Each structure stands twice: as C-alpha cells, then as structure tokens.
Amino acid sequence: MFLIVGIVVIGLVYYFQETVRAWLHCQKFRHIPGPPPDSFLKGHQMTLKRAKNKNAFLEVFLTWVTVYGTTFQFRIKTRPVIFTVDPEALKLITQDVVNFTKVDHLPNRALYGQRITGTYSILTGGGQEWAIKRKMMNSFFAKQNMSTIFKKTVPLMGRLLETKIKPSVGTGAVLDIHEMYTMIFSALPGVMGLECPMGNDHPEEIGRRINIFLDVIPFQLAGAAKKLSAAMSQQKQDTIDLVIEMRVMSRKMVTDKRKDMVGQDKKPNDDMLAWLIEANDAAGLGDEEVVDDIMTVYLVMDNMSKQLGSLFVYLIDYPEVLRKMVKEVRENPITDYRSLDKLKYTECVILESLRLAPVLLRGTRWLNKPMQVGKYFIPADCQFQYSQYVLHRMEEHWPNPREFIPERFANGTPGVDTFTFFPFLAGSRACLGRYVAMVAMKLTLSMLFTNYNLTPVPTSTPPVIVQTMAVTRLKGGSLLRLQTSLQSII
C-alpha cells in the first residue's frame, strides 16, 4: 500500500515540476503575439484537429496571420512554436543553415526503424558532410548542364508517349493524371545516369513503389491509436520489405558504377550516380549514404507528378488558360533546348500552379541559439514553422490570391528576390533539381498537348490539396481521356 502511495506521490510531484517548467518556458515567449490556446496543457491541439478534419489546417494559419501578423506563436501542447511568413525572417531561416537546422524527426528518413533516406542525404541532411555534398552536386544540377540532360530527355518522353500513352488513345481508356505523370517522371533519373532498378522501360513499377512509401510514411506522425494500428499492419511490413528490396538494388547499382568508374579521368555531365559517389567520397561518407541519395532522388521525382497533377486541375477550371497554353505549344514545337524559351506562357502557367499548389506546403526549422528574427528576439531551442501555402495566398503580395492568373509572371518571378514566392525554397537549401523540374515540366506539357487533347472525364472527382501534409498530396482523383490533338480543346 505504501509503495503504491509513494509511486502516486512521486508521479504527482514529477507532473507538477514538469508543468511549472513548461509554464516558465512559455513565459520566455510572452512578448510574441499569438492566438489564445485551447488550454495550457493541450495548446492549440483541438483547434488544429478540427481544422484538419475539415481539410482546412493551413487556412487556420492564414487566418491567424491576418489577426496576429506575419510572425506569431502557437502551441503544440505546452511547447511554443514560432510561425512566420515574414519575408525577412524567411530569408534568414533559409540562408542561415548553421543556426536554423533541420529537425531530427523527419519521417522520410526511416520507416519504423528501416532506413530510407538516412540523415546525410542531399535533401534532408545537415552539417559539414551535407555542405560538401551539396556544393559538389550544385554543379551537376546547374542551369548550364540542362542542355545535356535535355538531349536525352526528349527521346525518353517520346518513347513513353509511344509505348505507354498512345495505346490508350484508340481504346478511349481512362488514365489517372497522377499515375500517368508518376510513370513519366519515375523514368527521368534514367536519363541522368540513375538507371531504374526495374529497367528504364518499366518506370511505372518504381512509381508504384514510391507512392506506396509516400502513403505509409505519414502514419509515423499520426495519433497514438492510428500509429499503433499501422505499426501492426501487414501493409507496414510489406512496405518495409519494398524499401529493403529497393535499397538492395540501389546498393548493386553503386557497386557496378564504382567498377565502371575505375580508370575514368572525368565523370560525364549526365551521370548523376557517378557524381553522387564522388560527392559522398569527398564528404567522408560511404556507399550506404549513396544509397540514401538514390532513394531521395526517386522520392522527390514524384513531386513533379504531383505538381502537374495539380496544374491540370486548374486547367480544367480555367479553360481559357488551357486554350492559350495549348495554342502556344502547338505554334512553337520543341526542336532543341533553346526552343523551350519560347514557351513563355506555359512557364507562367507552371509558376502560377507552383504558387497555388506548391510542392512544399510548409516547412520546419530548429533555432539553435537565441537571436533577433524579424521584429522579435527568439529564445534558443525553439521550433520555427513557415508555409508556402499561406505566404502565396497573402493579398498584400498577390492581388486576388485565390484566382489562377498566370499573367502574374509575365515579367519574370520578382517574388523570388523578395522572398514572397519560394516554391523551391531559397538560399543554400534551395531545391537542387529546380532547373530539371522546370525543363521536364515544360517539355512534358509541350509533348503531351502537341500530340493529344486531355479531356476530363465528367464523373471524376476534382482532387483537393491535403493541407496537413508537408508536401502537396491530392485527395481524390481527376481522370482524363486522351484524344488525338487535331481537335478543338475542351
């Protein structure tokens, strides 16, 4: 009896101490405005949960910005978190990679303990090793290297259209937008020297696996009940088995490439795997980290399929934009890399889709030391959150922010310089593949719309952006039929 009483007393004392400690920590942030929490212990958990259930998670933050300003605090349970869409603060956060670091619990690093992209990948890594790799890989993904990649991408796209898309035209088959684009972009690493483990003629298989990963990875961030259910499910074990299999195949790719590199004086500009191997060697890392980078590349390639899936949804809603874009691509056939520059309106359409449906909806950083950020002095050991979704819908930066108006970008992308438009992030953390993405998306739209009309199926359900995710995920599915291109558009 005394033992039970003693345990209860110790538990109550500990609970009291932790509550006092949390309260004292919160007092350090009292100079920063923010919405009143639902309760001290739960913070804004209930408000955000209700918004999540309505798929309005980020809309809550957009509302809070209008009330409390571009930088404010909210609470995850008792922990203060700083949310900002202040352009000056975003500039500091994205450029200072020493004091603003990636958080440790990124879900794509591992799946229930099974390594996926690890801690040193070119996307999610940090520290000196990451900086060395990043500097070397910047040269591979530089804009001046895009003409080399373009020459190999065109025949790839042509082959995929001929073998995977054209057979559906005669039958009137219904194709899912996201699945179609996933198949196309899963093949793209192959033209950059990262051969598909299942064969370059079967990119739909690697695309299928990547989407299985992306469906299961978020379960690790779910509530306790859902997380436990997922951890015990056969789906989780099957997905882990797929991750293991892909890492084994990727490891063989690295071993074979090292043999090919023996005696080579210079790595080719279109051989991404050779570049990744040399970058990891320079950083003092090994083959497992190269495998991490291979897994990372396959995961992020799916981002382009999401982006074009989102873009097509807007084209359905804005048929005049579709007509104008199709007219441009059919009057300006792609003959070489420079001919992509003629697709100015098409680029505006892509940029506007990146504004309204950015690949990255929101991001997180960890502040390691106290410093002035914008208008406020922020204590150390504090989490920062920001959101491209919110920033790109602020009326002070974007008149009629919810309307799809490609003409906003007719004179370039001034928002990049002012940190009011950063779908690819900015600074040393800017997306490595941003030039590849723009070239591939313009080329894909050109070749698709030159050869086919994309007609939406009347009974399809328009996808919506899942606002709780860090990257754009479409809920629902908009289907399309492929017809020959020499017909009127919609």
What features would you describe in this structure?
The chain has 490 residues and is α+β, with helices and mostly antiparallel strands. It is 52% helix and 12% strand. The chain has 18 helices and 14 strands. The strands form five sheets. Strands 1-2-10-7-3 form a five-stranded mixed beta sheet, sandwiched between helices. Strands 6-14-11 form a three-stranded antiparallel beta sheet. A hairpin with a 2-residue loop joins strand 1 (71-76) and strand 2 (79-84). Helix 5 (127-140) runs antiparallel to helix 12 (272-282), helix 11 (234-261) packs across helix 13 (287-317) and helix 12 crosses helix 13. It is globular, with a radius of gyration of 24 Å. Residues 486-490 have low confidence and may be disordered.
| Biggest β-sheet description | 5 strands, mixed
Strand order of the largest sheet: 1-2-10-7-3
Strand content is 5-15%
Poorly predicted sequence stretches spanning 5 or more consecutive residues: 486-490
List keywords for this structure.
490 residues, 52% helix
Question: What topology emerges from the helices and strands here?
Answer:
Layout: H1 2-27, H2 45-53, H3 57-68, E1 71-76, E2 79-84, H4 87-95, E3 100-101, E4 110-111, E5 114-115, H5 127-140, H6 146-171, E6 174-176, H7 177-186, H8 188-191, H9 203-216, H10 224-231, H11 234-261, H12 272-282, H13 287-317, H14 319-331, H15 344-356, E7 363-367, E8 371-373, E9 376-378, E10 382-386, H16 388-391, H17 414-418, H18 434-451, E11 452-456, E12 461-465, E13 474-477, E14 479-484
Parallel strand pairs: 2-10
Antiparallel strand pairs: 1-2, 3-7, 4-5, 6-14, 7-10, 8-9, 11-14, 12-13
